[in-house]
Automatic annotation (TrEMBL):
One of its GO terms (cellular component) is nucleus. Residues 72-265 form the SET domain. Residues 530-539 have a biased composition (Low complexity). Residues 565-575 have a biased composition (Basic residues). GO terms for molecular function: protein-lysine N-methyltransferase activity. InterPro entries: SET_dom, SET_dom_sf, SETD3_SETD6_MTase. CDD domains: SET_LSMT. This is SET domain-containing protein. Pfam families: SET (PF00856). Coiled coil: none annotated. The lineage of its organism: Eukaryota, Sar, Alveolata, Dinophyceae, Suessiales. It comes from the Eukaryota. Residues 522-592 are annotated as: Disordered.
Length: 592
């Protein structure tokens, strides 16, 4: 990080992707426990000791940051090509404890058994205390020099400026955290509370979660997190990688001589970097992982129909939501995407009672084009309101960022906490409040299944996280910069494009319906014509007996005299002699 005043904790979930799950690494506070800031000669001796013990540090040099002598980083003394080794530290030079499968799967976002999630952290802190008192060290003398360079316990401050109604929750969480860590470190009762706080602080801010162990890796914690100053800045230069019995960094792109070497601690937003690593956000922010917070109240479920309102709550409860919550936090653009929980909520609110009942029993739902259009309009309305809120609170956000940049730590009301307690436990709660919104359970994209705030954690923690999310937004402490507004604008643009596409689909469907209607009309006309012809043919076709009778009548007529009497008694001219004169002349001429 870019400043040495960071002292918040970052409990990050151990994972197998070492590039993104390095556990809470911050810039090494190069201070002795007694005489303060370490000299460059001590750093050179430390680098030489590491090299002598088998570490590879080709072309690296720790130095002060150009813009501030209060912070340090690692710089390249030569160029590196992409994929080239930058740093390699043998694991025998590291202080390690195993990660239990249970803690690796659960820690820290899902509540484990009372103490099992903290066992690796407490175990590593206990080993660090033993090494500090002269116990068994990793092989070689490099780790002893590393211990001498570790800073003392920083001056932590209670968090102030928050709603008093959260005091009770924080008191409870503070007492619970103290009890759990005390039980984890009960076997090392010979150490003082300040020793415990120092050791836990070092582990929280420096340990790496590797595949099978939680480790303190000498020299690796000197590398800063990648923070872009502008949107066109190059990406991070290195990535974390495990080797056979070693851990280190590899060049992720071409690195020029004199360039600072950094890597990505995690794909964290400005808010996460603040609460996990104590890194103040930039204004305007250029962090590509920023997301904006959108809060929706439970009043969106209300309806004039009590049956519809009850069906909505039943469907949400079945899908793992907590309908009793007064506000639901969402992160955009992730939650506004096709499989996001914000999009799912908008879809649920346009359903009728029958569809909601189908959702409640786990059936797959297919919305009509009209319903999809309504849900998109509803989502656009929410995002537009959130954008307006962000623009209104932008001056407050910038003021809060300036306060943080000046090292003035926010504190909580007038309630006093112990140094470790409060800042670190509060920071973990803030991190959980943010991560819960992004790490909600997903049950597949083929059906609507949002489960934000599923019943996987204690109610007190959920309530505190919700209240804190609201406080962070309303009081401007949530470090949402202009990036958030741009994210919302991008999402709104996507929603408008989706509405246009839906309108085009609807127009195409109407044209297709017209064509089908015309084809149906033509088919019906042809059918009627065919039926008429069939009836006409049927009426003309007489039975065989009737035909025979008609033939007999005609034969009988042929056998009668050719002349008939008129009504006046005159003799009728025979049929053959009644030829016209013209026809007679023609017949005579032909005979001639």
């Amino acid at each position: 990080m870019k400043a040495t005043h960071a002292n918040t904790c970052a409990n990050m979930k151990p994972g197998r992707c070492c590039r993104h799950w390095a556990c809470a690494i911050v810039c090494l506070h190069t201070k002795r426990r007694t005489c303060g800031r370490a000299s460059f000669q001590e750093l050179r001796n430390f680098e030489a000791a590491l090299s002598a013990e088998g570490a590879e540090l080709p072309g690296l040099r720790a130095a002060d940051m150009p813009q501030s002598s209060a912070a340090r980083g690692v710089f390249a003394t030569r160029s590196f090509e992409e994929g080239e080794l930058v740093l390699r530290i043998p694991q025998r030079l590291c202080l390690q404890v195993p990660l239990t499968p249970t803690s690796e799967e659960r820690w820290p976002w899902q509540p484990p058994a009372p103490d099992e999630a903290l066992q690796p952290v407490a175990a590593l802190a206990g080993r660090l205390l033993e090494c500090r008192r002269g116990g068994s060290l990793p092989q070689g003398s490099a780790f002893r020099r590393y211990l001498d360079l570790l800073p003392g316990l920083p001056a932590l401050h209670p968090l102030r400026g928050w709603d008093v109604k959260l005091c009770g929750t924080l008191r409870h969480l503070h007492a619970e955290a103290k009890r759990r860590f005390t039980s984890c470190l009960a076997s090392r009762a010979e150490f003082s509370d300040s020793d415990f706080r120092w050791a836990l602080g070092m582990v929280w801010t420096r340990a790496f979660a590797l595949r099978d162990s939680l480790s303190l890796v000498p020299y690796l914690d000197l590398f800063n997190h990648w923070i872009p100053q502008n949107r066109d800045d190059p990406l991070w230069s290195c990535r974390l990688q495990e080797f056979d019995n070693a851990v280190g960094l590899v060049a992720d792109r071409r690195i020029m001589a004199g360039e600072e070497l950094n890597h990505l601690y995690s794909e964290a937003s400005d808010a996460q970097l603040l609460v996990q690593h104590g890194i103040p956000p930039k204004v305007p922010s250029a962090n590509p992982f920023n997301e904006a917070l959108v809060l929706l109240g439970s009043e969106v479920l209300e309806s004039d129909s009590p049956e519809l309102c009850q069906a909505r709550r039943a469907a949400l409860g079945k899908l793992g939501w907590q309908p009793a919550c007064t506000e639901w936090p969402f992160l955009v653009p992730s939650d506004a995407q096709e499989a996001g929980s914000l999009r799912a909520l908008a879809s649920l609110l346009v359903m009728d009672v029958d569809l909601l009942q189908a959702v409640a029993i786990g059936g797959a739902i297919q919305l009509t084009a009209s319903q999809r259009r309504q849900s998109c309009k509803l989502l656009s309305k929410w995002l537009k309101e959130a954008q307006d809120d962000l623009e209104d609170s932008q001056p407050l956000l910038e003021d809060a960022v300036e306060v943080l940049a000046d090292s003035i730590q926010p504190v909580f009301a007038s309630f006093e906490f112990e140094a470790l307690s409060a800042a670190r436990r509060w920071s973990r709660m803030l991190a959980e409040a943010l991560h819960f919104t992004a790490r909600h359970l997903r049950r597949g994209c083929s059906r609507l299944a949002p489960s934000l705030w599923a019943s996987t954690g204690p109610c007190a923690l959920e309530a505190a996280a919700l209240a804190m999310a609201d406080q962070m937004r309303s009081q401007g402490v949530y470090p949402a910069g202009r990036q958030d507004v741009e994210d919302l604008q991008r999402v709104l643009t996507e929603q408008k494009q989706l509405e246009i596409e839906l309108e085009q689909e609807l127009h195409a469907a109407r044209l297709q319906q017209r064509r089908l209607t015309m084809q149906l009309s033509e088919a019906q006309a042809r059918r009627r014509q065919t039926q008429q012809q069939a009836r006409a043919s049927q009426s003309m076709a007489l039975p065989a007996k009737e035909l025979q009778d008609l033939a007999q009548v005609r034969r009988n007529r042929g056998s009668t005299p050719q002349s008939r009497r008129t009504s006046k008694g005159q003799k009728r001219t025979p049929r053959k002699s009644r030829e016209s004169p013209t026809l007679g002349r023609v017949a005579l001429q032909a005979a001639w």
